[in-house]
């Protein structure tokens, strides 16, 4: 397996080294796995991850969001009444799924219904990070922001 060289991108992109690491990790990650999942774009700032976790209860599932990493785990409780199976096609194993989240993406809600775990995510960009319009002044025009004078008025 070869590695990808992202150095040409860094000539014109500043501060995207984490993007290169994410692409390299995605390149090395095997597709598939257990449990199967969907990632859905609901609108510009809302996403949903849906995992097929049939047979798991809320108590057997765990969701942890730390920094930009979302980890979903499932640990089946030992069942005393295990039968004598001739064939076992339903997966009954523990799992851990990790999802790398972009900056400002937060978990909004998680719910389990009909064997599907839905995790709703929302991107909340801080006001300071949103685009803003900068006024361009003509040469020689007075500044838009005037600073108060530091001199005290003279007493008469």
UniProtKB/TrEMBL annotation:
SUPFAM superfamilies assigned: HSP20-like chaperones (SSF49764)
Pfam families: HSP20
Similarity field: Belongs to the small heat shock protein (HSP20) family.
PANTHER family the record matches: PTHR47062, SMALL HEAT SHOCK PROTEIN IBPA
Residues in SHSP domain copies: 28-139
Keywords, sorted A to Z: Stress response
Alphabetical list of CDD domains matching this protein: ACD_IbpA-B_like
Protein name in UniProt: Heat shock protein Hsp20
